[in-house]
Amino acid sequence: MPSVIAVTGASGRVGGRVARRLADRGVKTRLLGRDPARLPDLPGAVRAAPAPYGDGEAVRRAVDGADTLFLVSAHEGPDRIQDHRTAIDAALAAGVGRIVYLSFLGAAPQATFTFARDHWHTERYIEARDVPHTFLRDSWYLAGFAAMAGADGVIRGPAGDGRVAAVAHEDIADVAAAVLLGGSEHDGAAYDVTGEEALTLAEAAEELSRAAGRPVRYVAETPAEAYASRAALGAEHWEVTGWVTSYQAIATGEMGTVADTVRRLTGHPPATLRAYLAAHPRSYAHLLP
Q1: Which end of the chain, N or C, is more open, meaning fewer C-beta atoms within 10 Å of its C-beta?
Q2: What is the pTM of this model?
Q3: CATH number for the domain formed by residue range(s) 4-139+167-193
Q4: What are the residue boundaries of the structural domains of the chain, listed by start?
């Protein structure tokens, strides 16, 4: 078992859950987050000062004394790859000897989903540093289905009839904890972390309808319609492109992968969408009649 694990994104939905699982196992941690006030107060945890990924010296100080780094990817942005590189170099300079990186399913240089390309470049950078590492390539979050639906009960996007095997934050955290605690047996591995049911957005809308007690439906858009419908949001082009291509990646089949990683590494099956909605009614509160 590693002596100290640095957990980034520890105030977030994956990093926070990982930190709690490690604390439950008696592991000492260093917790990093954008807002230290939101970091959990856990046994054996040191809450670090703010350490943006692009600030190498701040990251080095924050992870000093840790031998393993759980690296949750930075929020999307035009400098994301460079920020990752800076954080990785800082962690290695601080003496970190192992990195577990939360990547994304289908990470590739020409992935349809543009943000998945950032993950591919980050993976290659870690490999080139010649440090023991593991990549966790998670699918869409189950929470994302409800988030995609507007208050009008409509999911819009150019996903066609493609499928996505979405996964719960809890299951990702369970896998991450198993890998972090498992040691060298996971070195060099790249695990696809998915649910075990691959749904179309129309099928996901049916489950949301069942949970919310009102009709929820999927309306397919063309890519041009998708860009136009999001233009009024005022986001930058790179961000809108990421949103639209996430749906297109479903249409191309790049998100339909179904892996047994959750079951194999944790000993339990991943949550289904129906089970997730039953356990998290707040996720679809905006859809209630």
Answers
A1: C
A2: 0.96
A3: 3.40.50.720
A4: 4-139+167-193
Beta partners for 71? 101
For the chain, how many residues are written? 289
- ∠ CA(133), CA(138), CA(142), 5° rounding? 155
What is the tally of helices (H) and strands (E) in the chain?
Answer: 11, 9
Q: Listing from the earlier edge strand, what are the strands of the sheet with 4-7? A: 45-47, 28-31, 4-7, 68-72, 99-104, 133-138, 190-193
pLDDT confidence band for 99 (50 / 70 / 90): very high
Residue 63 structure tokens: 């992870």
- pLDDT tens per residue, range 202-224: 999 999 999 999 999 999 999 99
CA-CA distances (angstroms) from residue 173 to 22, 49, 182, 218, 258? 10, 23, 14, 29, 18
Angle at 109 between CA 104 and CA 112, to 5 degrees: 70
